[in-house]
Structures are given as C-alpha cells and as structure tokens.
Design goal:
alpha+beta; 9-stranded mixed β-sheet; binds zinc ion; 24 strands; Mss4-like_sf; carbon-sulfur lyase activity; metal-binding; 7-stranded mixed β-sheet; Metal Binding Protein, Guanine Nucleotide Exchange Factor, Chain A; 26% strand; 15% helix; 2 domains; lyase
Length: 417
C-alpha cells in the first residue's frame, strides 16, 4: 500500500527549514504547475524565469510547529511570500484571493519527492506560462517548451493571466516581431537617451536599489581593449556587453525557488547606489562589500543581506522580500554575478543592450539534475536555447566560441557562427 503514495518535502538551502507533506496518492501525479514571467515575480526571485509553483499538498507552512526562521513578505494585498530568514530561500506563496480561504503554493525549485518516481511517472507538469507581455522580449519563455519532457505537452502561453488573456502559439518564437526586441543589435555606447545609461538592479520591495553602470562599463572595456589590456572573461570583446549565462546548479535553484537560474557578471566598480540612495560606487572588492553588508554601513546598501553558503562563497539577497541579488566568491575579488531577473532594462527582461547571452552549448552545472525528477531540464535547455539562437539568427556567443574552440578563437570576436 505504501508504494501507492509519495511524500514531498520543501527545504531551504541552509536546511534550517523543512516542510513535509502527508503521503499523497501517486494517482494524483503529476501536480500542475504554472510559470509566471511577470515583472513582479522576476524581481521577487531574481530569476529570469519568474516564479514556478504548485499547490502545496501539505499542512499550512505558517503553523506554529514551523521554525521561527520562517519570514513573511507582503507581495500584494492578496499574496504573501514565506522564505527562510537565514538563507533567503523563497519557499511558499500564501494566497488569500478567495475570501475566507487561504491556499498555499510551493515553489517547484525547492521540491523533492522522498521516494523515487516510478518508470514513466511525472512529479510536476507545467500547464502554462503567463504574463509574457511583461517581459517585452519573451524573457526565458522561448527555451521552456520542453518543461514536461520531450514527449510531454508544451505549456500554453498567455500574454497576461492564464485563461484570461490573449494566448500565444507555443510553436513560435515569442514575440514573433524582431522589432519588438531591438536590444540584441544595439549596445549602450550608441544608444540614444533615455535608453543610454544605467540599468536599475532592483528587487521587488525596492529595498535593494542599485545601478549597473552599463554604458560606463562598455566604454571602460573599449578603452582598456584599445590600451592592449586583456578584458575580463565575461566581457564580449566585440560589443563590450556582459556575458549572460544560464545555470542548472542545485544551489541557485534552491535559493531562488526556481529551476534554471540566469546570471550576468560585472566588476563591482561598475555598480553604484541609486540616486535616491546618494549615488556612489559600491565597495570595489568582495571583502569590503561583505564587511559593509555585515556591519550595515551606509544607507545605500538598503536591505542587502548576506548568506555565506560555504567558506569562500557569499550569496547576497534582499532580507525583506527574499530576492537573489549577487553571488560572490573569494577567488574573484573584483566582481559579482548579478541575478538577471533584477535588471530593469527598457528593451526587455533579457536586457540585450547590456547582456550578450550564451545560447546553446552545455548548460552550466546541468549535471546537478542527473538522477532527479528534473533531469530532462538540462537537455531541454541546451536544445531549445540553440533552436532559439538559430531561429533568431543570433551568432554563437563569444563565450561559447572560446569554450568550443579554445582561447585562440577570441580575436575573431562574437561574430563567428
Ligand atoms: Zn534556510
Ligand atoms: Zn507573477
Ligand atoms: Zn526586496
């Protein structure tokens, strides 16, 4: 009898919080999930993918038996978020949109079945992508058709609310009109105001309110190249844009609550406080940044908080709304990874005037998914990002060329297909 049921856990990255469902019948699988690409969800999780959740089949996570580390954030008048106060893992939605009823949804990125799935059994099935319109350029939607596996249904696409807005065809690249995402062919060096300049890096609650000084960074890299200096590994030597890269690792999945995280990379000297916070550059090395956050120096850092996930790694997040913000490690003292979902770029969620995305090729840390219910997601991402690149006529990125052909390919720049 026991084998006819399955139990689920939702656990944060630091393991301080674990929630367990009662045994649920295997006949109730797969559990239906929705992926929301709206601006609010992207700015809440830091993920380019927004949020992804299923109805939680367990007891309410707010019950008194839960750990006091569980923190609550008011996302909207009807929705609250529960997250870990130590590692900031985004765990649950509390939904009060139906008067008199409270339901809980769990983020798919923190979900683990406690016993193996049977042959052919699926834990989660994504039925929809919603709020594509918010992304302007499609964000991550074009490489998430295979969420349900190669033989599974493609999730339906909605420009706004699921079932209540215009529907887009999942067979097509979205948006169809290339003019709707002009960012790829342009960069900030030759952009016109008001699109020339800084890109806000801002979480949902606005407590983390920083600026990526992208135009200044591109000029700086161009000047350094002219002086014969070697550019950092994450800078496109032709466009001076910053590398954008997808990440399949367990750590970023759990901390954000969403599979397939997306990062871009920047030197700390190219990140500043917002004008509202007095401007000025962030501490320019990761040791000073860590000290400033730990000692809560200066109002400009706002709600930026720190979780040391290992001895040499610092994961920065918003202590109020839980958004993933930066990843820093001691071996790269002058730079951080920036959560791509926090960028507020006018050209769209992928911020393509600023970021040179690496499409196709091997997914970073995709092997973390091996042997888990998410195993198909790595191959899906590799195939679909390549299909997207070819459909849009984008060349292989500089980073992929370097990886595939070795460092000698660099002088050719990113134009090599
Ligand atoms: Zn935690
Ligand atoms: Zn949303
Ligand atoms: Zn926040």
């Amino acid at each position: 009898m026991a084998s006819d049921t399955i139990t689920l856990t939702a656990q944060c990255h630091c393991n301080a919080l674990t929630f367990t469902s009662p045994p649920i019948p295997r006949s109730s699988l797969p559990l239906k999930a929705t992926n929301c690409h709206c601006n609010s969800c992207r700015h809440l999780t830091g993920s380019l993918r927004g949020s992804s959740d299923i109805l939680w089949p367990g007891p309410p996570p707010s019950s008194p038996s839960t750990n006091s580390l569980l923190k609550k954030y008011t996302f909207s008048p009807r929705l609250n978020i529960f997250f870990c106060g130590k590692c900031s893992t985004t765990l649950f939605w509390e939904d009060n949109s139906t008067p008199g009823t409270t339901t809980y949804l769990v983020f798919t990125g923190v979900l683990t079945p406690t016993s193996p799935l049977r042959e052919g059994e699926k834990l989660v099935e994504w039925d929809a992508h919603m709020f594509l319109d918010d992304t302007t350029d499609g964000g991550a939607v074009n490489w998430l058709n295979g969420l349900n596996g190669p033989a599974g249904e493609k999730p339906r696409r909605w420009l706004g609310w699921k079932d209540k807005s215009e529907e887009a065809n999942p067979q097509n690249v979205w948006p169809q009109d290339k003019k709707l995402f002009p960012g790829y062919a342009e960069n900030l060096l030759d952009a016109e105001p008001p699109n020339k300049g800084d890109v806000p890096v801002k979480c949902h609650c606005g407590g983390v309110d920083l600026l990526l000084n992208a135009a200044q960074a591109q000029q700086d890299f161009k000047d350094r190249q002219a002086r014969g200096e070697q550019l950092p590994w994450f800078v496109d030597p032709s466009s001076y844009k910053l590398l954008g890269s997808l990440d399949g690792c367990d750590d970023c999945r759990i901390c954000s609550g969403v599979e397939l995280f997306a990062w871009t990379f920047a030197e700390l000297k190219h990140i500043s406080y917002s004008a509202a916070n007095g401007g000025g550059v962030l501490p320019t090395d990761t040791t000073k940044l860590r000290e400033a956050v730990v000692e809560n120096k200066g109002p400009g850092l706002g709600t930026l908080a720190l979780y040391a996930s290992s001895e040499d790694v610092q994961r920065y997040h918003c202590g109020r709304c839980s958004a993933v913000v930066f990843y820093a490690c001691d071996s790269r003292p002058d730079m951080v990874d920036i959560a791509a979902g926090l960028l507020h770029a006018p050209e769209g969620a992928r911020a393509e005037r600023v970021i040179s995305w690496s499409w196709g090729g091997k997914l970073g840390f995709g092997s973390d998914m091996k042997g888990t219910w998410r195993e198909h997601l790595a191959a899906m991402t590799e195939q679909e990002t390549e299909q997207f690149r070819i459909a849009r006529g984008f060349p292989k990125s500089f980073r992929r060329v370097v990886k595939e052909q070795g460092a000698s390919a660099v002088p050719g720049g990113s134009g090599q297909v």
